[in-house]
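Cross-check.
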Amino acid sequence: MEPPELVLASNNPGKLREIAALLSMQVIPQAQLGIAEAEEPHATFLENALAKARHASRAARLPALADDSGLCVEALGGAPGVNSAYYAGREGGREQRDARNNEKLLRNLSDNRRAYYCCVVVLLRHAEDPRPLVAEGIWHGEIARAARGSNGFGYDPIFFIPEIRKTAAELDPAQKNRMSHRGKALAQLLEKLKQC
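Predicted model, tokenized:
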């Protein structure tokens, strides 16, 4: 097997599937190299993505790709935002946390249901890269009244896209990747890579 071109700084299986489907280059998840997830203590998606990419690149001694993403809800002042993964606490596995996060969000909303997913992707050529490639994708929608669909992960069952009258969890993976915040950010990143 030839060495990986890029280490992917995530252990989230949903993100790993989406990123692998969208990229045309060889990537290896950091867990396969024995690299633990980095801390994400920052207040912005960009700072967290940079911290994750630097951590993975330093540990693997390879170029690294990281994303930080989350759901921002207008009526909640942008929350859960960078705290999306742990909005309802850190206890339990990923699926349990996702279910609790969705339940909490649905409880906290009334009439204004406008929301958007944000994804910031960072590519570092090496751990101390002074000029990281950065791209951002935004996916506008609203919060549904109840969960629908079984595809996707995280807030996808309650993220409703009015133009097509479906939640993100009702889309097949290829359709979601064409529309999503992560798909838009990675498409922008690949365009930037062509210009390097």
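Helices lie at 13-22, 45-60, 94-108, 173-179, 181-195. The mean pLDDT is 93. Passed to J.P. for a second look.
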